[in-house]
Specification:
Helix content is about 85%, strand content about 0%. By secondary structure, it is mainly alpha-helical. It has two domains: about 190 residues, Growth Hormone, Chain: A (Up-down Bundle); about 180 residues, MFS general substrate transporter like domains (Growth Hormone, Chain: A, Up-down Bundle), CATH 1.20.1250. The longest helix is centred in the middle third of the chain and has 33 residues. This is Putative MFS family arabinose efflux permease.
Length: about 400
């Protein structure tokens, strides 16, 4: 029987890792992945970046993200999660450095591709590490795991906010230099704090190996398919806002470049609300939580289509919609981790790799489809379609076979 003092002593180690992991998520997603779009207008003033080249860069970033997520899933399933963290730091730092020093488009493309891989390596390794550390601690830690997962995932909001502020006030080369340094520092911090936390909570070999064996027997794609479907709907529906939301706000409300960047800062700041996704899932159950967040996401996207004629096309309107979008989107990302845990409870890292890859795949299809719809029928129709896809995901969550019970991570 472990003493209460011994149990309590382990929690600070986990907490320190949680801070480092949240910072790594913030840099990888908010800066390395989304920073290119925010700095693209300034980059285009220095380098001959055409629209087609920018689109190609985004496609390469998407491809590297998906590849990195799948590689990380394999690594964590073989207990090599720290290798994925190292790769996240290296790809983020190297990619940012290439962008910061780019003298031509070839180097810029290489940098965007490398930087885009960083978040793909991060999510599976962080999700698996938090799950393992919680299980090695005490009962209270296991109960807190959904909240810990949600807090780390909400790092995206901090990163988007920071990238927006940097785009407002700093030259783009300096911004990317800072992103590279932060990627390296946060990865090192995550590695060090994870190692110390594991040392404070030694592994229970016999029981863990038995559970791992059971996981391998029961880990089927059919079990995680419902979560993948929800991820595809979320990614496809939200893509129109991520891709065209800022330009639509500028053209409709006449927002300046600075004002539209403030809109993006609002999206990032609201994303911090994603830290509540674990509590939301425990209180409402996974299905209802997903349905509620999907409705809010759909309303925020549909609100863009309604401004005008139903909503006034003002900066206040778009900032409000950005707050709703950022909060609901990051909450849904956190719920994706919950869904992966429900499907593959002992292989959370691999499950997270699959579901987050599905989000990215949905975004790629959604962005391309939205562009075609805008060319054919206008942006209003495209935003309505995006809202409907998100709403469909909310309805699907209520009809899926999982979640017939209240969805804690380990029911």
């Amino acid at each position: 029987m472990q003493s209460h003092g011994a149990q309590q002593s382990r929690l600070p180690g986990v907490s320190r890792y949680l801070v480092a992991a949240t910072a790594l998520v913030a840099v990888s997603y908010g800066m390395c992945r989304f920073g290119f779009g925010l700095t693209l207008p300034r980059i285009s003033e220095s380098l001959p970046v055409t629209a087609s080249l920018a689109g190609g860069a985004s496609s390469l970033s998407f491809a590297s993200y998906c590849g990195a997520a799948l590689i990380a899933g394999v690594l964590v399933s073989r207990s090599r999660g720290t290798a994925a963290t190292v790769l996240a730091g290296l790809s983020g730092a190297a990619g940012a450095a290439l962008i910061a020093t780019a003298g031509g488009n070839a180097q810029l493309l290489c940098g965007v591709t490398l930087a885009g891989a960083a978040p793909g390596f991060v999510s599976p390794s962080v999700a698996q590490a938090i799950a393992e550390l919680a299980r090695r601690s005490d009962g209270a830690a296991v109960a807190r795991e959904p909240r810990w997962q949600a807090i780390a995932n909400a790092g995206t909001g901090f990163g988007v906010f920071g990238a927006g502020v940097a785009a407002l006030w700093l030259p783009w080369r300096l911004s990317w230099s800072i992103y590279g340094g932060l990627a390296a520092v946060s990865a090192i911090a995550a590695l060090v704090t994870e190692r110390r936390a594991r040392a404070m909570a030694p592994k229970q070999a016999s029981s863990e190996s038995a559970s791992d064996s059971g996981a391998k027997r029961h880990r089927t794609f059919l079990a995680i398919l419902p979560t993948v479907v929800l991820a595809l709907c979320m990614g496809a529906g939200s893509a129109v806002f991520w891709t065209f939301g800022r330009s639509h706000a500028e053209s409709t409300a006449g927002l300046s470049n600075t004002a539209s960047l403030l809109l993006w800062c609002a999206v990032g700041a609201a994303g911090v609300a994603g830290a509540l996704s674990g509590d939301l899932s425990q209180r409402l159950g996974f299905q209802r939580a997903w349905g509620l967040a999907s409705v809010v996401l759909a309303l925020s996207i549909g609100g863009v289509a309604a401004s005008p004629p139903l909503l006034p096309p003002t900066g206040t309107t778009f900032v409000t919609l950005g707050l709703l979008f950022g909060a609901s989107y990051v909450v849904l990302c956190g719920l994706q981790i919950t869904g992966a845990a429900l499907a593959w409870p002992e292989s959370l890292g691999a499950g997270t790799a699959i579901t987050f890859t599905a989000i990215a795949a949905g975004q790629a299809v959604g962005a391309a489809s939205a562009g075609l719809v805008i060319d054919a029928a206008g942006s209003t129709v495209a935003f309505v379609c995006g809202a409907l896809v998100c709403a469909a995901g909310g309805v699907a969550a209520l009809l899926m076979p999982f979640g017939r019970r209240r969805a804690t991570l380990y029911p």
